[in-house]
Amino acid sequence: MAATNHERVGRALTLLGRGLAPFVERECRAKWGDGWVQRLAGADPGARVGNVNTVDPSFLLKAMADAWSPVFRDTLGHAERSYVSEIREFRNAWAHQSTFSTDDAERALDSIRRLLLAVSAAEEARDVERMRQDLRRAQFAEQARQTQRRSAVASVEGQPAGGLSSWRQVVTPHPDVASGRYQQAEFAADLHQVWRDEASDEYGKPVEFFRRTFLTDGLRQLLLNAVRRFRREGGDPVVELQTNFGGGKTHSMIALYHLAAGYPPHELPGVEAMLADAGLAVPPAANSAVLVGQMISPGGTYDKGGGTVVRTLWGELAWQLGGPGGYSLVADADRTGTSPGAALVDLLRAHSPCLILVDEWVAYARQLYGVDGLPAGSFDAQFTFAQALAEACRAVEGALLVVSIPASDIEVGGEGGRAALERMKNVIGRVESSWRPASSEEGFEIVRRRLFDDMAAESAPARDAVVNAFGNLYRTQRGEFPSSCAEGDYARRLTAAYPIHPELFDRLYGEWSTLEKFQRTRGVLRLMAAVVHALWERNDTSLLIMPATVPIDDPAVSSELTRYLEEGWTPVIESDIDGPNALPLRLDRDDPRPLLGHSAARPQHLPRIRAYPAGDQPGHRRPLGRC
Q1: β-pairing verdict for 238-243 and 399-406
Q2: Which of 557, 584, 582 is nearest to 572 (CA)?
Q3: Does the pTM exceed 0.85?
Q4: How far is CA 375 from the centre of its chain?
Q5: Residues near 142 by Cβ (< 8 Å), separated by ≥ 6?
Q6: 363 lies in the same domain as 313
Q7: Is 620 helix (H, G, I), strand (E, B) or coil?
């Protein structure tokens, strides 16, 4: 029998208690000593406190909320504080036997997962994520059984102008997108899962990964630099990856990981041509070490068998590169929690060529801020190690260190996170080479390749005819559209973004990316996967996927849009934007003039949602809807 949403939330709360308890105890004990429970309970130090369950999520969440300023503010940030507050509300609703909608349950599980990751409770976070994906699969199955299109919208849809093909006649979504079998987690690259061989095929299998990966200029240069390092032909020894949340850091690390595995370049789509264009020979396989800060607890130890117990990042690094022999080079430093210094040079020389990937280092280091006595060593020791590792990579030919650095406040956290970021940038910045993330123009191809099958060559004329028709419309009706639409370069953008109109990309990559929780390319992929699936199921006959055709009435699409906004937007959407009696829909019913066979008022929907959170005046409209 399938679990209810109430049961799912209850199980997730149990996992939350199990994952939070060591972190809360460690932080409170560091502040208040053995009397931390009495302090949280409001009793005198040393007094008996009866029946306090220190793994109860209610106790732990209240403790974090009440003691945020004196205890947790330095380690965690504003985002984590909001998760605590939100989860407390979900816990109270659960305790009072309230019912949970699927959207509320999914949001509760997601917030719990994020809080667990913030405290490096990796196992519990993975269990919650599995529950969340099971819930989403059940949700999509239910949606597939529902009516595909409401009659109010169907009554205003037109047909493409004569001689032009709809987008669905020209390109086909990937089978998982068309069928709705995709999981939103598939668009969130997870380096740790790839390393553990637990990732989905599109990330875990090198051939499939590169088939769906567009080699942007930044990624191309990153891979070529790695080839030069592995072949001992120069290249930068240290690379810093910094961009906003969801901007491609982890995806780039996964590309490097697969490149280092030694697969023949001709088996990896795009890699053989990349090497040929650069005049580089096939690189050798390289030893790899993967350190993901959110998946390693500074307060834990890791038994590797044979009497070896790893405590620190440098111990884990040495073990991954060289097993027992590699670990023996840093064993004393690992046991004492002090940087191994010059021993890192010996380690890298013995195991080069080698690739060292460090993701979420700031998330790991911030948990050491102001805390002493943990197995991982001190806060200062982290950066002594970071500097020694960077210098060792520079000294050893064939060694490459790639470190991700957060750029958004969501990823940085509180005072400890900010201190860790500043120290990390000072250390890595001495020897690093910067990396350029994907541009918005390159984002067109990234999204197209991830969501659609390759377009057949014989379909290109049909695509070009649509592009030309839009170009002619913009040139002949200049007063109705922004001036940039009539420029020759806009036809190139229409072609590059096909079958998605570039205006929709501009909205998402530009204005929507200013929302605190919107994850840029990852967020665009999540939303557009839901959009494409809904339109495909509805047999949409539009020429392009435009702001007007975003099916905001679809539950999956609506959920993706509103998850980035403040509470209370669903009724606004239904009454003012895309409900059966919304103004744009009434305008389309009353306006007999179609735009290339389609509704003209509804393109305003997506921009109007974005306008309000940005602080624009209600009613403000840029003449973009008809682009």
Answers
A1: parallel
A2: 582
A3: no
A4: 30
A5: none
A6: yes
A7: coil
Looking at the fold, whether 42 and 128 belong to one and the same domain comes out as: yes
State how far the alpha carbon of 530 is from the alpha carbons of 113, 187, 524, 535, in Å: 22, 12, 10, 9
273 and 401 within one domain: yes
pLDDT tens track for 325-374: 999 999 999 999 999 999 999 999 999 999 999 998 998 999 999 888 89
Residue 328 one-letter amino acid: S
In a domain, 397, yes or no: yes
Does residue 137 share a domain with residue 168?
no
pLDDT tens by residue, 26-48: 999 988 988 888 888 775 555 55
In the listed set 434, 468, 491, which residue is the last one of a domain according to the structure?
434
What is d(CA 277, CA 279) in angstroms, rounded to the nearest whole number? 6
Q: Are 595 and 512 members of one domain? A: yes
Whether residue 336 lies inside any domain: the answer is: yes
With the CA atoms of 363, 366, 367 and 368 taken in that order, what torsion angle do they form, in degrees rounded to the nearest 10? 140
Give Cα 492 to chain centroid, integer Å. Answer: 29
**Cβ distance 309 to 385 under 8 Å?**
no
How many domains does the chain contain in total?
A: 3
Distance between CA atoms of residues 162 and 153, nearest Å: 22
Instruction: Output the CA–CA distances (angstroms, integers) from residue 114 to 111, 117, 346, 503, in the order listed.
Output: 5, 5, 38, 32
CA separation (Å) from 70 to 34, 75, 116? 16, 11, 21
Task: Answer whether residue 440 is part of any domain.
Answer: no
Cα–Cα distance measured from residue 3 to residue 430, given in angstroms and rounded to the nearest whole number:
53
Number of H helices, E strands in the chain: 31, 7
The parent domain of residue 402 ranges over 191-434
Q: Is 133 inside a domain boundary?
A: yes
Pair (521, 487) in one structural domain:
yes
3-class secondary structure, 447: helix
345 and 267 in a common domain: yes
Separation between Cα atoms, residue 92 and residue 104, nearest integer Å: 13
Distance, CA of 82 to CA of 84 (rounded, Å): 5
Are 456 and 546 members of one domain? yes
User: What is the identity of the amino acid at 63?
Assistant: A
